[in-house]
Design goal:
The protein has eleven helices and ten strands. It is an alpha/beta fold and about 270 residues long. The protein has one domain: Alpha/Beta hydrolase fold, catalytic domain (Rossmann fold, 3-Layer(aba) Sandwich), CATH 3.40.50. The longest helix is centred in the N-terminal third of the chain and has 14 residues. The radius of gyration is 17 Å and the shape is globular. Helix 5 packs across helix 6.
């Protein structure tokens, strides 16, 4: 692991190096770059240069008091790609990480990017509003999540991780794997855990999607209890100019662990296309 200064903070990252096409893996909430362990090995074995990083406030990256919004997250990513001289990359965003991908592409352009993947991702817009009645979260849901994370962080995250890996009420990973995910969340700063709920729960990415013209793989579990496919994956695929939708049958939110082989195969085929 290394640390690189980007956008005024130190970002912890891993970089496998090599001459293969770069794949940048952007993690979900409330995890860290280490949550991609099941993908890194497969992508590296296929010859790709694989980069993971910890979002500000998470893992071993700096934990400032502010900056937990998607414009800042995209600027952090832009600085990292520049510092590592990444070009012709595939950006893969899981869950809230999908927000970084689309905001980066709409704000910073695609000069460094060949393609993108939205995996169980939060775009286009989770919050229910008058002009977004198909959103998945009411305002009180967002406030309830923030209160749970603030008032009983350990209990809230324990329940969240069960839903994260469950489909139709059944846990789709081992208890050891669920505990590994909880351990990855442990280093996250309180201000990051709570602040990111506002970010992913309230940010409207619809205009970002309209600005994207690179090929995008949208891959989503059809039993996702955290970010339902009808709220996010299908809508994003319909809105994007150049999208392919892959539905993981029976897949929970955390299908990068429960259905790792299916995700890895889909990623490798899409990147090679």
């Amino acid at each position: 692991m290394s640390k690189t200064t980007t956008n005024g903070i130190q970002i912890n990252h891993t970089d496998s190096g090599g001459d293969g096409r770069p794949v940048v893996l952007i993690h979900g909430w409330p995890l860290s770059g280490a949550s991609w362990s099941s993908q890194v090995a497969a992508l590296t074995a296929a010859g790709h240069r694989v980069i993971t990083y910890d979002r500000r406030g998470f893992g071993d990256s700096d934990k400032p008091d502010s900056g937990y919004d998607y414009d800042t997250f995209a600027a952090d990513l832009a600085g990292l790609l520049e510092a590592l001289d990444v070009t012709d990359a595939t950006l893969v965003g899981f869950s809230m990480g999908g927000g970084e991908v689309v905001r980066y592409l709409s704000s910073h352009g695609a000069d460094r990017v060949r393609s993108a993947v939205l995996a169980g991702a939060v775009p286009p817009f989770l919050l229910k509003t008058d002009d977004n009645p198909d959103g998945g979260l009411a305002d009180e849901d967002v406030e309830g999540m923030k209160a749970g994370a603030r008032d009983d962080r350990a209990g809230f995250l324990d329940g969240f991780m069960t839903n994260f890996f469950s489909a139709d009420g059944e846990l789709k990973v081992t208890e050891a794997q669920r505990q590994e995910a909880l351990a990855l969340a442990a280093p996250a700063a309180d201000q990051a855990v709570v602040g990111c709920i506002d970010a992913f729960g309230r940010t409207d990415f619809r205009a970002d999607l309209d600005a994207i013209d690179v090929p995008v793989l949208v891959i989503h579990g059809d039993a996702d209890a955290i970010v339902p496919i009808e709220v996010s994956g299908r809508r994003s695929a319909d809105q994007l100019a150049n999208a392919t939708l892959h539905v993981v049958e029976g897949g929970p939110h955390g299908f990068n662990v429960s259905h790792a082989d299916e995700l890895n195969t889909a990623l490798l085929e899409f990147i090679a296309d």
